[in-house]
Amino acid sequence: MGEIHEFFAITKGTNAQSMYRVLDQKDEKGMPIVEKIALEGSSGIPLGGKLKGGTHLLISRLGIFPSSKNNATGGGTTPIVALFLRKDEAMECFKMLDFHWLDLRWRKKTEEVLEMIGNNHPVFILSDSNPIVYEN
Question: What is the pLDDT of residue 135?
Fold first, then answer.
């Protein structure tokens, strides 16, 4: 595992929902790239904005956070609705507007991304304390 280099995240906060492109590729400052590519509502991270800080990304049910290994170092996204390998599928979800956190409609897609990340990815780290786990 750990062969995934890009995925898309749909997140939802109190006043907004967002879509992010998440890359393990690093920018000029050595930080992985997490860019907001769609926004509905008002958010502290504008459309086109990127998360700042950290050399890794902590993926949790509460959102995606820049980190240095397991310690979050900066502000992150709002809680996860779903994760996708393909942008078109993520956009289809984003446009629905009637979703909630860890939405069961996209459980299979989210679990596919999590499985591809695995436990040994060099940049993406799955949270132990707030894992993305669906209730049966």
Answer: 78
* Angle subtended at Cα 18 by Cα 12 and Cα 21, rounded to the nearest 5 degrees: 125
The Cα–Cα gap between 45 and 62 comes to 16
Buried b (16+ CB within 10 A) or exposed e, 99-134: bebbbeebeebbebbbebbeeebebbbebeebebee
- 82-122 tens-digit pLDDT: 999 999 999 999 999 888 899 999 999 999 999 999 999 99
Those residues with Cβ within 8 angstroms of residue 86's Cβ, 6 or more apart along the chain or in another chain = 8
Give the integer Cα–Cα distance in Å for 9 and 17.
11
